[in-house]
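so my prof wants the structure for this chain in the tokens format not the other one, which i didnt know existed until like an hour ago. anyway here's the sequence
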Amino acid sequence: MESPATPQFIEEIYFKRFKREEPATVRSLKEIIAGSKVNKEKKKKEKEQKRKERSIYATRLEAVIKAMETIFESVPYGIDHTMKVLDNARQIITEEKTERLKYGVIIELAAVLHDIGAIEAQRKHGSMEGHFQELEGVPIAAEIMQEQNYEQSIIDRVCYIVGNHHTPENINGIDFQILWEADLIENMQIMDCIQNEAALKQFVAGNFKTQAGKNLALNRYR
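here's what i got, hopefully its the right format
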């Protein structure tokens, strides 16, 4: 073998590493530097685009929250419950590393709007029972999101979740599952399952699928 640093030695090491005698594409140092600058600029633009998307999303969500607060103005508990569910959902999204721009928009909207039909259900049917909330919540949720120019695919998905959020057998995706768990964590405070640790663990095991949701529920009521 040739001694280190000779051209022959370098060629031999290169062949062992890449299984060929020379690069498929030979670029000059100038071309390499230029390519690096292009890649950096591309990444910078992508980062700026994501920042703009997050800013637009935050502004829209804030408007949806304001609309929810207006509807629940006479029932402060509704606002308090909704914001706690939203906070739970955000914790689960973060810990599960759910892709925020893909699923987070839907999950957070569903959290804010899941009980939006409660007041109308009481007015029309004299009851806030789950079925009536699902029935009356869909058109209200759709109108609020349309006013903020959400994409129709997002509106449709959120409305499905709102229209089924008391019907766990209709859960059909991670977005719905996270909303279900975030809401259930708050509703558990009036359930008998929190009276002892064994019952709590059994309930959580039977109703939660995400590890983050399980941890949040157990830590809250243990």
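also thought this was worth mentioning. The chain has a mean pLDDT of 89.
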